Amino acid sequence: MPEAASYRKVDLHTHSTCSDGRLSPTELVDLAVEQKVSLFALTDHDSLDGISEARARAAEHNLSFIYGVELSTQWNGIPLHMVALNFEPDNKAILSLVRGNQAIRLDRARRIANLLVKQGLPDLFDEAVELAGDSQLGRPHFATLLVEKGYVKDTNKAFDRYLGNKKLGQLRDVWPELEDVLSSLSDQGAELILAHPKRYPLTVTKLKRLLGDFKKWGGTGMEIVSGNERPDSVRLLERLSREFDLKASVGSDYHGPFGPWMQVGKFTQIHESEVDLVWQSWK
């Protein structure tokens, strides 16, 4: 790993087809190399399935590759995401959390199918599972099936008519509590990063409460930029990373080519010298 790797060459938050991304792990690594990224992490949602493929491809390119995963959790009833980075592939605590969250996702999909049946539709669960394949099963797969079967003309209509919260009710996943997740991982040697802090429905006051708890329970860092953030939001997160003594992580949160601003290794500029970059202590 380059000792003085610039943040412009680092991307520690990306997604492949093993969760909800558009590119395979191999394609994603190839794109990272094309974008001249030198330090890269695959962080699929509650999945490690793409890690081996991505690592092998990264080795072919001599690209420094970091093990990662984005874990779903909750704090005070608010769903949150936490990125675990730089852990060993056989980390039992992380494997256990991933298995638990995958079970939650499967149960959620079954509940979605049952709620659609109550709206007069056929049971689409098995077809949704088949359609999802290796990716994370979710509402988009049900939406695709509704379009294919002619119930709606496009996926937007599927959500409007059948899959939106108003139709399904407040369908919320019972993710593990943040305190429990951090407690189980705090002695594992991994970097525990709060993902995209500005995307949650929190005032600055509540965000500070969250960061205080995150640090107290064993969190080690926070993303100060994730994709195309507003510059003033990045400045705020830089200040908060210093205030709460949390290392700074960066990433594109790349899922696919949705616009010119969505690209691996591309995100809003940070003040590199004013924060403690998470990878600076890695060997």
Topology:
Layout lengths: L9 E2 L13 H10 L4 E4 L8 H11 L2 E12 L2 E8 L6 H27 L6 H8 L6 H10 L6 H9 L1 H4 L9 H8 L5 E4 L9 H13 L4 E6 L4 H13 L3 E5 L32
Parallel strand pairs: 1-2, 2-3, 5-6, 6-7
Antiparallel strand pairs: 3-4, 4-5
Helix pairs in contact: 1-2, 5-6
Describe this structure in words.
The chain is of the alpha/beta class. The protein folds into two domains: 7-92 and 190-281, TIM Barrel, CATH 3.20.20; 100-168, DNA polymerase, domain 1, CATH 1.10.150. 40% of the residues lie in helices and 14% in strands. The relative contact order is 0.15.
> Going across the major beta sheet, what is the strand order?
1-2-3-4-5-6-7
Percentage of residues in helical conformation? 25-40%
Taking the sheet with the most strands, its summary is: 7 strands, mixed
Average pLDDT over all residues: 92
What's the short version?
By secondary structure, the protein is an alpha/beta fold. The chain has helices at residues 25-34, 51-61, 92-118, 125-132, 139-148, 155-163, 165-168, 178-185, 204-216, 231-243; strands at 10-11, 39-42, 64-75, 78-85, 191-194, 221-226, 247-251. β6, α10 and β7 form a beta-alpha-beta unit.
